[in-house]
Request: fold
Amino acid sequence: MSTIPSIASGERGEEVDRVEAIMGRGGTRLRKRMESTELYLERVTAQAGVPLAGHASATIMAGGKRLRPLLVVLAAESAGCSQDMREGEEQLIRAAVAVELVHSATLVHDDLIDGARLRRGHPTVVALAGREVALATGDLLFSRAFGELAKNGSGTQLSALSAASSALAEGELLQREDAYSPHVTVERYMRRCELKTAALFEAACRLGALMAPAGDPAALAGALAGFARRIGLAFQILDDVLDVSGEVERTGKARGTDLLDGTVTLPLILARAHEPQLASFDLATLDGPGGQEKAEQLCERIAATGALGQAREQALQLVAEAKAELPAILPGGRSELLELVADAVVERYS
Reply:
């Protein structure tokens, strides 16, 4: 049986330990559901036919934390789907698969737009096969996501994933509009993160909560969306911190990759407020020969301002707020595993 990248057999031991703790607390049922999700992902991408199936499968199997499908499953379990649901079991797995397929599609398209060469330490689709194949692979993953979710027969679920996908596109356009700009505010940055990252975290929790067998699933979905939004924002902030501070062996991409692409992230915004010379620094000067070395030098300048610690504190505050509201939404200890997911978002960057 296949195992789950970074959940059952990740390359970084500390990352496995964190999510393995969640799997251990969730017990056999949670582990079985996540393994079923992984197998379903393999089947869906393999059905695409040559040559796209190979690229789609490689994208999925490259790993990742599988946080989004995990959120779908945990939201469903916290909503009362705690026993094997027979007919509903496959619906839950399809919802988890759909979220991960959308996420993977956005990664392929992001790499295409950015011209990225590495993703999770592996060559990207655009690097291996060119722009046309990368575009088609991303489109395939998107279409498969909605095709699988449509089998659940839930217009509410489809609406939730559709809204998140629209937000992803809007966020990408906003990021392109802000590229290389010296005037991006913290508020503008946070709005972009809500669209590009948090929206899919929200959709994951909504899809799981909407499967509640009793009560008011829509109200629960809305309440959990607030939790998911905060941890999604924290996830993106910490990812941007890691772009400045992380090594390629840890991140799977070169240091300062986002800055090279002209993406204005929170560490740079905060650093500009501390150092006047950075406020007038033109990211476009990183283009051309020696760009990677210049990007790494810029990362050092950003780190020297204390901006990384400031950004981390904002992320930690968001996670603390997310965890604090959960017990009221899910009383009786039902929030424990979702709280552990919030902790895992932070601990990966510690």
User: Anything to note?
Assistant: The beta strands are 118-119, 122-123.
